[in-house]
Amino acid sequence: MSLLEAHGLEVAFDLPDGELRAVQGVAFSLDAGERLGLVGESGSGKTTTVLALMGLLPPTASVAGDVRLDGRDLLRDGERGCDPWRWRDIATVFQGAMNALNPVRTIGWQIAEPMEVHRTATGAAARSRTRELLALTGLPPGIERAYPHELSGGMRQRAAIAMALACQPKVLLADEPTTALDVVVQDGILRLLTQLTDELDLALVLVTHDLAAAAATCTRLAVMYAGRVVEEAPVGDIMGSAQHPYTRQLFAATPSLLDNTPVRPIPGIPPRLDRPIDGCPFAPRCEARFDRCSREPPALVTVGEGWRSACHLSAAGHSQDAADTSRRTDVALTPSMSTSADGPPAAHSGKSVPAASGPAPTAAPARRPGPGELRAAPSAAALARDSSPVADDRAAGSALVLDGIFVAFPRRRPVADVLRRRPRPFVRAVDGVGIRQDLDRQRDRRERRIDPRRHHDRRARGCRDGQEGPPPELPAGTAGVPGPL
Ligand SMILES: Nc1ncnc2c1ncn2[C@@H]1O[C@H](COP(=O)(O)OP(=O)(O)OP(=O)(O)O)[C@@H](O)[C@H]1O
Ligand code: SF4
Ligand SMILES: [Mg+2]
């Protein structure tokens, strides 16, 4: 049994004309000393989940589900039932410490208050513990007599963390604790949270938009979309080879400091949560969607050790089809091409595995072809089972479909980079190439070739294949050698 366990957590807000289902069946577990990052776009339900765990939702919210701390049911007695454990067992650091701290009370008074209220320490003992906590969070002696407006943003956030630790909780919920702080201060706060969880054996839930911060701080990531957890996995696994298309698109939309990979925004917007959603909520924006996605909501299924994903492509029943789809556009690798997870993917399939993703989204990873190995075409039965868009192309008579082909060659690293275990840089020789050759078009061309008059007319008009009018002019400045890859 884990320290904190949530199963089927649901939160709905009453609206004048219905309800908004902000959290839908969220489930996770957390052990002492573990750090879980809760990430996702704005409005995905991260804060609502945290507030539900703290029993701090407004009266318009109704909560259901099973949340247990050390086996105790936290939701059984509603908000009143939270008093015995709130701050004592689960504490929170709110976003924007200036708003969370009382401007007319000293920092020391505010840190001592929860101890007095919950009777964990009183009087001189509470004041002494306050000084200890301020020192623990890296604040200078005497700061307890200051008011919030006398502190910098980073110092206020440290004071807010000290306040959350006042009653020695087992679980710390930190909702965007570094928003509006500069990166140096941000780094200091995240290091402090890491150090505290290690030293005090705290369990941490870190809510953040910043994937890099979550990856650097947490041991596991839970990705939320439209009020649901769509993927949860150990950080090392999810960073290199996320299974869920949303996670992959989220990573692709995040700038990388390691290379110049262009940022690819996720098209569209998240769905409205006050309307019913048929099928997968991510379907309208998903690069890998296929017929079944708009009909049937995917279940969160286990796809590896400590790894769950809510996507039809990850579901066990679809794994073989997905493997077939992934193999269809793989290209053979030469020995010098890298398959290292710390660089861009050397080669992977297209629509079912979009750019910036890792291996194929299958329960069992698809086998890559060996060096120089040629692949057999997928069987007719596999194509018939597969209803993905790529399969539709094949079924519609495409002779060849290549989509999202990547080939990268490793570059040498300076010794200093090897010692610091920096990832190996790559030359991106082929970057997301897609080719589709239609059988119909081939036939059409053959027919046109035997019509010399038409062929002659088109040549005379300066047409290129499949285009009307003269060939387009190159933009100014494109002459000369191409830029470095
Ligand atoms: N008090 C409320 N009444 C009605 N709807 C609400 C209320 N609070 C939040 N919501 C809605 O619940 C959904 C989830 O909101 P929430 O604040 O949990 O998202 P979030 O993931 O924390 O977003 P952000 O990253 O912007 O903080 C949103 O659609 C939001 O509009
Ligand atoms: S492939 Fe389908 S089920 Fe999976 S995320 Fe995309 S739309 Fe959802
Ligand atoms: Mg929020």
List keywords for this structure.
globular, binds magnesium ion, binds iron/sulfur cluster, Rossmann fold, 15 helices, 2 domains, 485 residues, alpha/beta
Topology:
Blueprint: E1 4-15, E2 18-30, E3 35-39, H1 46-54, E4 61-69, E5 72-73, E6 90-93, H2 97-100, H3 107-118, H4 123-136, H5 153-164, E7 171-175, H6 183-200, E8 203-207, H7 211-217, E9 220-225, E10 228-234, H8 235-241, H9 245-252, E11 301-304, E12 307-309, H10 319-328, H11 380-385, H12 389-395, E13 398-410, H13 415-419, E14 426-438, H14 439-449, H15 452-461
Parallel strand pairs: 3-8, 3-9, 6-7, 7-8
Antiparallel strand pairs: 1-2, 1-4, 4-5, 9-10, 10-12, 11-12, 13-14
Helix pairs in contact: 3-4, 3-5, 4-5, 5-6
Bound molecules: adenosine-5'-triphosphate (ATP), iron/sulfur cluster (SF4) and magnesium ion.
Structural write-up:
The chain is of the alpha/beta class and 485 residues long. It has two domains: 4-233, Rossmann fold (3-Layer(aba) Sandwich); 279-443, no CATH class. It is 29% helix and 21% strand. The chain is built from 15 helices and 14 strands. It has helices at residues 46-54, 97-100, 107-118, 123-136, 153-164, 183-200, 211-217, 235-241, 245-252, 319-328, 380-385, 389-395, 415-419, 439-449, 452-461, and strands at residues 4-15, 18-30, 35-39, 61-69, 72-73, 90-93, 171-175, 203-207, 220-225, 228-234, 301-304, 307-309, 398-410, 426-438. The strands form three sheets. It has an eight-stranded mixed sheet, sandwiched between helices. A four-stranded antiparallel sheet has the order 2-1-4-5, covered by helices on one side. A two-stranded antiparallel sheet has the order 13-14. Helix 3 (107-118) crosses helix 4, helix 3 packs parallel to helix 5 (153-164) and helix 4 crosses helix 5. The longest helix is centred in the middle third of the chain and has 18 residues, at 183-200. Magnesium ion (MG) is lined by residues 46-47.
